[in-house]
Design brief:
With about 325 residues, this protein is an alpha/beta fold. The chain is about 30% helix and about 20% strand. It contains 10 helices and 12 strands. It has a 12-stranded mixed β-sheet with strand order 7-8-9-6-5-4-3-2-1-10-11-12. Strand 3, helix 3 (about 105-110) and strand 4 form a beta-alpha-beta unit. S-adenosylmethionine (SAM) binds near residues 27, 117, 156, 185 and 188.
């Protein structure tokens, strides 16, 4: 489907639950309140929604949260999304803590790619950032994803002001031995993330990495569904990516909508725009989605203007 600016919308992110087993300081924060109750989508509603979205031209789905692996039916969701006519690609974003026990089932269900969120390889820093002494479990999850043969694996890091050059280099190093792509995502001023001191920008991170790893060559090839710019590093099997929503606005190429765990269609991560979805009726869903997409905002105003007033946490939105 096309929005009023002629952008093709072929990618949907679904936050299947807003519950999470971590309390990342920039996401749910220490208090960890995802919002009032009602934060998980029903299995049948997810599939009905996927059928309608696929009928409108959505070919790629990202399952997100909260923490999607907290759902007992995650592999069934992936399998059913993959079996939906028109769907080409189903991917997952997770903190990896429960992936060790689920990666095999997810691979068998047809999962095309997984993003593992990992903000430090230092156990103390990981605990400070995430609220849990769980780095080992996250790394075990990453290893399990590789062993299960999930075709594409990425690591996502949101650098903060306290992230050290050593943290950044260690994370980038995950791309050395394996074809695991490591991406640095700019902190967005949403929820507790809006209250944190500004971190190093992605340009500075690129320079810092180059100073140790040598010249990094821009790689023209896109990977996956998103707006990351990728760089190759000599001797590395994976690539290093940067997602710079604030530093370089990529809204002109926006191809996505988000479905929140409370059943709202968000047409922009930052701006107001969207509609509560009539999840139980395919006909109503179709017209609601088309109408909301027609009114999709042109761009975010991070850093320059007022954003979305709906107050949803990133866990409910799905990132
Ligand atoms: N629990 C899963 C995970 O850890 O990937 C999925 C949900 S999480 C909300 C999805 C992504 O959003 C994660 O990569 C997380 O780092 C990112 N995220 C959350 N809050 C953010 C913020 N304020 N700015 C930038 N990225 C954020």
């Amino acid at each position: 489907m096309l929005d009023s600016l002629g952008r093709t919308i072929d990618y949907a992110r679904i936050s299947v639950t807003d519950r999470c087993n971590l309390r990342c300081v920039y996401c749910l924060g220490e208090q960890g309140d995802p919002g009032p109750a009602g934060g998980s989508l029903d299995f049948d509603d997810i599939l009905r929604l996927a059928r309608v979205l696929a009928g409108l031209g959505v070919v790629k789905f990202k399952v997100t949260g909260g923490e999607p692996t907290l759902r007992g039916d995650l592999a069934e969701i992936v399998r059913a999304l993959k079996a939906t006519p028109g769907v080409a690609n189903v991917t997952l974003t997770t903190n990896g803590l429960l992936l060790d026990g689920q990666a095999q089932d997810l691979a068998l269900a047809g999962l095309d790619a997984v993003n593992v969120s990992l903000d430090s390889l230092d156990p103390h820093a990981y605990r400070r950032l995430s609220g849990a002494d769980a780095l080992g479990r996250a790394l075990a999850g990453l290893a399990a994803a590789r062993e299960a043969g999930i075709p594409s694996i990425k690591v996502n890091c949101v650098p903060l002001a306290q992230t050290t050059p050593g943290d950044l280099l260690a994370l980038a190093g995950l791309a050395r031995e394996h074809e695991t792509h490591v991406r640095f995502i700019e902190l967005m001023p949403i929820g507790p993330g809006a209250l944190l001191p500004p971190p190093r920008g992605n340009d500075a991170i690129l320079r810092l990495l180059e100073a140790s790893l040598g010249p990094m060559a821009p790689s023209g090839r896109a990977l996956g569904n998103g707006p990351a710019s990728y760089f190759s590093v000599r001797g590395f099997k994976g690539r290093i990516g940067f997602i710079s929503a604030l530093g370089s606005c990529f809204c002109a190429l926006c191809n996505r909508v988000r479905i929140t765990s409370d059943g709202f269609l968000k047409t922009c991560l930052h701006m107001d725009g969207g509609i509560p979805l009539p999840l139980s009726d395919e006909g109503l869903l179709r017209s609601a989605i088309l109408e909301a997409v027609r009114r999709k905002p042109e761009r975010h105003l991070f850093g320059t203007g007022p954003g979305c007033a709906d107050g949803r946490t990133m866990a409910r939105i799905g990132g």
